[in-house]
Amino acid sequence: MINIRPFKEYDEQSVILLWEICKLTRSKNDPTKDILRKKGYNDELFLVLEKDEEIIGTIMGGYDGHRGIINYLGIHPVFRGYGFGKLLVNKLEEKLWHLGCPQINLLVRADNLEVNNFYESVGYGKADDVHVFRKRLIFDE
User: Fold this and answer.
1) What whole-number percentage of the chain has pLDDT above 70?
2) Which parts of the chain fold into alpha helices (H)?
3) Helix/strand/coil for 73
4) CA dist 19 to 5, 75, 85, 101, 137, Å?
5) Whole-prediction pTM value?
6) Which of 107, 34, 40 lies closest to 70, judged by CA?
């Protein structure tokens, strides 16, 4: 049985373990702090996908009233290729559409070909006319 639902605090350890398995964590980002930072900001856009009551996927969405964003999309490697990533993306798109969101942006590392190919397969295209700039304000240690 498949279930997509909002993240709950008791999911934290399972979600972080999944992110580590999916290689979504980075040394500059403490996943516990990322989850804490998300709390209270569009909580309904942080989703987990369960199969037989086990978390096998996540997606963390955001919306600032102008653009939506996708972060932390991950599907356990054993369950990739079955459409679960597409289910999560579609569910988040539906939620953002209901909020009046006109466009969704996301960032994918250029060398992550599997993820680049996935997003292209679900209708996302590369924006040739933009550059991504970043400035870190808080350094997790």
Assistant:
1) 99
2) 12-21, 31-38, 84-98, 113-121
3) strand
4) 17, 9, 14, 26, 23
5) 0.91
6) 107
